[in-house]
Every structure is written in structure tokens, then in C-alpha cells.
Amino acid sequence: MSRDADPYIFSSDTLPSDLRFLPPLANGLLGWRVYDNIMHMGGVYNGEAGRCHRADVPCPLAAKIESKDAAQHAYSLDTHTGIFTHTLTSAAVTATQTLYSHRYYSNLMVMEILLVRQMTATEPVTVNLVSAFTPESKDIAFESGPDYRGGRYIKGQTTSAEYPGGLCPTVHIIWIPIPETLTLPPEQSQSRWGFILIADNSFDSAKAKFDEALNLMATGNMRLSHEKAWKELWLQSKVEVTGSDSLCRALIGCLFYLLSAFPSIHDTSSSFGGVSPGGLSNGGDGQDYWGHVFWDQDIWMYPGIALFYPKLARAVLEYRVRTIDGAKDNAEKQGYKGLKFPWESAVSGREVCPEDIYGNQEIHINGDVTLAFQHYLYLTEDLSMFREGHGSDVIYGVADYWVSRATWKPEDQKYHLLGVMPPDEYYYNVDNSVYTNTVAKFSLQFAGELADLLQHTAPKEWKEVAEHIKIPFDQESEYHPEFDGYIKGHPVKQADTVMLGYPLGLQMSKQVRRNDLEAYEPVTDPQGPAMTWGMFAIGWLELGEAERAQLLLKKCFSNIQGPFQVWSESSDGSGAVNFLTGMGGFLQAVLFGYTGFRVQKGCLAFSAILPNDISELCVRGVNYLGSQMDWLLRKDEVCIILREQTRSHGSAKPYNLQVVLTASGTEIPLTPGQPVTFKREPGCVRKLKSTSSCWSL
């Protein structure tokens, strides 16, 4: 990349040879890989239980521009605006095709074509539009309806519900038909065409949104409203580094694709369907984990989004709340009380994993879900999510499950979780996965904290199990074995035990943290999933070993497939495509590794460290207790600028934020618009706090 090139624009003269790595365009409801003849719609699945997958929806915009004359081609994805552009240049014409999933109007996808004459001539200029679209789907029984205002119309219903007695969603699509050719008349120097599609669950709603889209086209506001929505989104978050162009582009790509998987910050529909490992553009029958929602959403993707966008963070929690009935059904089928969130989730919250062993044994998902709720409360202190939003039902239900699931062993006076699968899926039916038991302990403790805040009487068993659950530890080797009976040096699939330090935050000495990292790093599968090395990198950054962390982080670059920065699950290009889980882990390595951010009860702790090749890290839009801040990290100093200070939830008083310099105890108040700069001291943890915090009352 040249020094003057915009790192937000990914360009190429050719398309990737593997079409799986064409850029996905999504907006939280509709997702599509450019030129593909199918797209997906959030919450629209077909198939019962383990056969459930994202339903293929035909995409009328699956068209490429071609010319009969020799032409040069250029392709670009502008992540500033979420617009993919194909430019065809011949001696006679420059044809520009732009494609985007509308960022504000989530039911809308757009294709625009501009033809500009290259020379003065009296002949018409024609380009071909080669379409792969057919109005059919193997998952939805579509039928044609009458045209509506010049748009074609089909409607259909999925052929199988997620569970017996469940609803089969209906899809209505209205679109402007795409002709086989477009012609620039002899008397015109240029001309523009617009093609739109609307996908909705209701015909009346689809018609209303098609009307609105036609009006946007007529007034020239179609692209403007889309670009405005992306601009607004980027104003609330920015992660840029100085010193490594490739790292900067990778971070931009990660944040762009993750944001594309979330709804608009103005969305009020409460219909967000969660985030799957491959996003909305992937997940059909037998591919990319069928579009199911895993722990990937709550542990890997969520933290990097929640740090900037509390509304989008809340959308994730609300998705889990809507699946409470399914989670209760899962627990009952296992013979336990409370809630058991599914290892693989679709709409209802009932288990849809194709293989029972994962759904039955990978129970750490429960703690992963509650950790996201805990993270949200510590970041926002928004108790309405837990009162009126029923978040407390999730936390208490999970706590009841852990109590019901745990087994007391009198010989060691500990509670055990037996017959589980840890995050490292090379092992199953093991006892006391150290990750599972730790996340269970913390979710039980959080349930007690929340009960105190909400003046709810907590069952004494929550505290009893939390205090006495077994956390495996080898006293002789001073490290955490992955589970009872784990043999040190045996291979592991992915980050597991190393996640005790981050994101779980289990207290341990620096020596134990080092021992865990050194025990598992050399035996972790190099072909394992992409998010793994980010967790190891965070561990080494905690210990002040930035260069070692950087070497691990660079391993992730083999998962980034050019030219559009699309991730694959494995470094050889195999596995899930547009692997948002890996992007989330990579983003966290910088957001929580370089900065040392730790979201804790009553404070946002931080301890900055940068590797030698990075001279500056700029993180704009960090949202803590509703106040937005920009952070600038350099080798020897940290600068914080408070953009605005908001009021406490339910209070007339604003949060008065101050930086606490731990060593001296000095408190530096933050004032909007006034930078606060202080020296970076290696290994020194500082804290951002508020005297108005609900935890300090």
C-alpha cells in the first residue's frame, strides 16, 4: 500500500480466484456476498432442530457488468461507506457499478450503474448485465404475485419450522427487474440507473418500504442516507495504528465486517437475530456453521463492539432474552433447573446443534452469555436492561442451572461439573473443565451482585456453589490443567485455559499466568481457529512482553484473505468464511491488549503497552458510563479526551469521571474537550472511575 493510499479502501484489479472471499455486504438484517445469487435474512431459518440453517433467499441483484469490447476492470470496497464498486473502462465507456446493503433502511439493498461516454460519437453505447438470479429457493416455496409499482414480487414460506409447532417464517421480496443490457443513447454523455430490492416478513411492510425506497431514489437521497448512516457509525468508533499499514488495514476490516453484522444504531424493531461465525452473508445448509449463534457472539465479537456502542451491545443481550423460553426447555430436557442456553442457537433458543454431544456437554455457553451481561452492566450501569429488559431472568436462570448441574463431592469438599466438553473440543466427557468451572463461579457471583443491586433475595446456594466449586490447579507445576486428568503437553485445539486471565479475569500470580501460556502455546494446533492467537497475545502483553505478543498476533495475518480483508477460520483458507469470530479475537488483542482495558465493577482499568513497530494507537469513541472518550497511546504517554459527559442512568447527576493514578493515588478529573495527558509507566494499572457509580453508593 502506498503512503498516500486510504487504508479504509480495499482495491484490486482482479477478483479473488476463490469466490468465497468476495466481500460480504450486510446491515444486521440482510447479508449477501457480492455477485452471489443467494442472500440471507436475519431470523429466517429452515429445517428442524439439527437440520436448521439459514434459509437461502434469491438475490435479484446478482448481476455483473460486461462489455463486448476490451476493457480494464477495477474493484474496490470502501469501508467508509460500505459500498462495493466495479469499474469497467473501455475505449467507448466507463461503467461503474455500485452495490450496498443500506445501513439505515435495513430491508433495502441497492445496485446503481453509471455509464459515462469516453469519446464523442454518434453511436449508442451498450453494456451487458449478466445475471445469475432465479426467483427460486430450495428452502422457501416462493410464488409470484402481481407487480407493485413497476417492481416484481414474490412471496414464500420456509418449508420446515425450527421445532414442532413452531412458525415457518414468510419472506416477501419486491425488486426492480434488471434488464440484460443498458444503453447510453447517442445524444447523452452519461446516464444513471438504480435497482433496489426490499425483503420483509410482511407484504404491507414490504410495500411501504418499497414506496420509501422509490422516494429516496427520486429525491437523490438513496446513497446519501446510506453514507450518512455509516459516517455516523464511524464517528463513534475508530481504531488506528501508526507504524504498520497491514495492521491498520486489518483492524479497519475487522471493525467494518463486525459492524456490518449488527443492526442500525437507530433500529427499534427488537428483531435482531444475533451474530453467527460467518455473518449474514453465510450459513446456508451445511456451510459456515449453518448460520447458528454460538459463544462466538458473546465472548469473541461482543466485547469489541460493546466498548463503543452500548445500543448494539444491548441488542445482543435482548437477543438472548428472547430465547429464554428455549433455554428453559433445554434445561428441562437435560433434567436440570433454570436456563441452559443452546450451544447453537437460531431464533427460539432451543438447541439446534446437529450433534448432540456439543449441545449436551459444552455448557460453558451459559457462563459466556452471562459474562456479556456482566460486561454490559459494568460498562453502562444500565439497570433498565436487567429490570424492564428482563436481563435479571437470564442471570438468575443461569445461576439456578449451575446449582442444579453441580455435584458435591465430600472427599474434597468441592462442587464438580462432570461430563463436560471444554472450549477445547478435542476432549469431551471430561470432569471439571477449568474454563467451564471458572465461568460458572463468576456467573454465580454476578447473580449475587445483581440480586443485591435489584434488592432480590438470592438463594444461599448461589454463594455456596460459587465459593466451593473446584478450580483445577497443579500445585507442583504451578499451572492450571485444562480439566481433571489432562496430561501436560497433550495437544489442544484452541485458546481455552489461557482465557482464565482474559477475558475471565481469574486472579493469579504473574508466574502462574506465564506458566499457563508456556504450557499451552506450543501444543495449540497451528491450524486451529483464527481467534486463538489473539488470546495468547493478550496474555503476553499483560506480562509486558510486547514483542512476543506481536509475533503471535502476526500469525493471524495468514487467515486474512486478500484483496478485501475477508477472514477464513483456518490459516489455509478452509473453514468458515468471513470468520467474524477470528476478527473479534484479533480486535480484542489490540483493544484490550495494547490498551490493557479491563471492564471491572466500578471502574475501567487500563495499562498501556505498545510493541516496537507501533508508535501510536488511536482509539476514538470509547463509551464508558455513557460518556464518549478518545484515547491516544504513544510509547511514553497516554492522552484521554472526554468528548461529552452524560448523566447517570435514572439520575439527574452526571457521571464525574476521573483517572486514578494507582501508584500515587492522584485523581485527575476529566473535563469535556480538555485533554488529560500523563506518562505511561510499564506494568502500572490505572483506573477510570466515577463517584456517581452505582457500585460506590
From TrEMBL:
Q: Name one Pfam family in it.
A: Glyco_hydro_65m
The entry's cellular-component GO terms read: cytosol
The record's EC number reads 3.2.1.107
The molecular function GO annotations come to: protein-glucosylgalactosylhydroxylysine glucosidase activity
Q: Does the keyword Hydrolase apply?
A: yes
Q: Where is the Glycoside hydrolase family 65 central catalytic domain?
A: 255-488
Q: Which InterPro entries match?
A: Glyco_hydro_65_M (IPR005195)
Name the UniProt key words of this record, in alphabetical order: Glycosidase, Hydrolase
Q: Which domain of life is it from?
A: Eukaryota
Q: What does this protein do?
A: Catalyzes the hydrolysis of glucose from the disaccharide unit linked to hydroxylysine residues of collagen and collagen-like proteins.
Q: Which PANTHER family does the record associate with it?
A: GLYCOSYL HYDROLASE-RELATED, PROTEIN-GLUCOSYLGALACTOSYLHYDROXYLYSINE GLUCOSIDASE
| Name this polypeptide is given | Protein-glucosylgalactosylhydroxylysine glucosidase
